[in-house]
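COMPLEX REQUEST
Ligand: glutathione
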Amino acid sequence: MNAPERFTLSMTRFIRAPREKVYDAFATEAGLAAWMGPRGMKVRSAKVDPRVGGAWRVEIYNRDGFTLVVGGQYKQLQRPSSVAYTWKWEGEQNPMPHLETLVEVRFTEKDGGTELHMTHSGFPVAAAREGHHQGWISTFNRLNDYLDPQGSAGTISLLGDVRSSYTRTARMALAEKCVAYTMQNARPQSPDILALHPFGRIPALRDGEIELWETSAIVNYLDECFNTGVPLRPGSIMERTRCAQWISAVNCYLYDSMIRRYLLQVLFPSGADGQPDRGVIDKALAEIPAQLDALEKAYSRGDYVAGSVLSAADLFVAPILAGLQFMPEGGQLMASYPNLLRAQAVIRQRPSFTGTQPQ
Ligand SMILES: N[C@@H](CCC(=O)N[C@@H](CS)C(=O)NCC(=O)O)C(=O)O
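STATUS: Structure written out below.
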């Protein structure tokens, strides 16, 4: 009888750190505790016995209490050039029951850093290999955050224009979550953006090999992946629902009237002779009072649009209201909404707002 087919995953990753440090991240308890598990998971315990035949075991968990345990035996340890170990999931939530796979990692000096080449072999089905591939991509992002002198700014880049309101929402989320990142200037429809975003809009986010577009997806990703800073998803069902409602309102109505058809029509006119198209502006201005009425009603309950605490929705609303207030007629419209002005004064105190003010 033929042996059953097995599937192998191969990955290569460049890390800006010396080989010894990268090797130690795989073969010491402090090292494994710093990065094992995809983004959004933390290590509860890491045990290693770094000799051939010695055991390793790591327990990881996420903020909902979901726990995974993985361990195995070292097969080879050659500091700083290679390490190999078996990999077996334990426990009730085991993604691959009774199956032992093999991880082999080589570390090569390259361009002042280390090229890591990993093979993870022995998967019984391609879907198991693919599931582990997604896990390793995110886990290697955390390894990179840990070892790269720039931290997560060596892994995470935000592509956009600091003057754009949606880019500002994403930057405010990065600031609220205390996530270091690299800002890469990119205009809508530019080749850099089109390489990431199928419709050429800004912003887009790169986290290692992970590419994301749509601001609400980016904000959600940051909130799920990082336990640092402020939670952007409210705890109560009602506040979570209001948060989703206001993000949708910004995407479907408020951005369109306040920014696209008003502010941008004034700043980048599309009318005859390069003049603003007054018909477009007047129609947008006529829609804005009903939108401000709805916000005023929401802020009559407190300083945050979805409820009693800051949520992702506030990061969508604040940049467009700042844009509206910057315009003479927009500022005049806003002046008759006292609750809205009070709430804006509160969010405008936050470092995430002051630190992302376009020049
Ligand atoms: N639904 C998108 C909208 C993004 C968006 O429209 N961004 C504006 C800049 S604030 C843009 O790229 N505009 C250029 C265009 O419309 O081509 C998101 O949530 O990210």
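REMARKS: The chain has a mean pLDDT of 96. The pocket of glutathione is lined by residues 164-166, 188-189, 200-202, 214-216, 251 (CB under 6 Å).
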